[in-house]
């Protein structure tokens, strides 16, 4: 029997260990690669889930905004029907708004009751008032509703005179004339009209008359309404009239109301008042400091309308919310700032914002932006951005540039998209190129 030395034994063990390691290592490496691959898959799936969640949230936000806008449109149509004394149509429209349980549902119940009363349907009018009081006990329409309830009960069973609206008009004309001769007597009458059950048009005109008065009492009545001591519709109108005058005192008043208001619609209307008054400083402050995304977006949109291009650009560079940034792009467009839109289109880290910038460049006219759009197309690798550039040139009816891009484009789908746009254009350049393709 062969006897192994200690050195041979140790060497054999080492060799076996090395051999074993060589056999095991590929499996360990494979396991490590599989783990890394699984981790990558999980990370990608998590990213996809996050993106899907964001997309769902954005779709929900857009649907909610569209629904809100639709309700507002129906509400405005209802008010128009009241002004034209189209009472059945008004009942139908306000019933739709009330049924939607939207932000103006309480106001819709009031105006439905008002319209039903005009149709001599007092029982249904009282039912509508009762629903308003029961469902919306904190509504700012309660005072108006209770005043209407008293009027309906007093007239129950009596026919509605079609001359009521005309009487109200004549009354306002008389008070307007009296205001110039004896304002101290006219203003209490105007205030009484605001507190009564007159039509929305008549109340708005009453506010307008008060807004034209230099009387301290008239200003106090208007201020009280603007601060919310009336229904929301009148408050919005009072804020609008105060903003239209634009004096330092009025801007200060709007600033005080803005600071104390919690209703987003009221604050939005005040921002518009600042814009009408040319108060750029306060609009910039809202765009900078507002916690509400909606109000910041509204503020930057108004800055664009005011031509505050430098301020909008400074805010854009600091803003983190892409929804607000979209409004800033809109503001830059409204301010005619093509240079900064080109910069966003070329270098912003967010693809969607770059696409929006390209869209707005397309609406700014060929002479100012056509060359820039072509350069954007040539520089970009993202297909979606290239398609946005094609659409922008199409909006400008820039057939010459589209033909030039089509001649150089090697991507079949992009070339097809360009030719599709050219086929819709009435241009000699487009026609000649299409004939060339047919040959």
Question: If you had to describe this structure to a student in words, what would you say it looks like?
Answer:
With 439 residues, the chain is an all-alpha fold. Among the domains are: 68-154, Alpha Horseshoe (Serine Threonine Protein Phosphatase 5, Tetratricopeptide repeat); 352-439. The chain is built from 23 helices and no strands. It has helices at 6-83, 87-99, 105-118, 122-135, 142-155, 164-181, 183-195, 200-212, 216-226, 232-245, 248-260, 264-276, 280-289, 293-305, 309-318, 322-334, 338-347, 351-362, 366-379, 383-395, 399-408, 412-422, 428-438. Helix 16 (322-334) packs parallel to helix 18. The chain is elongated, with a radius of gyration of 34 Å. Mean pLDDT is 83; it is low at 13-25 and 158-165.
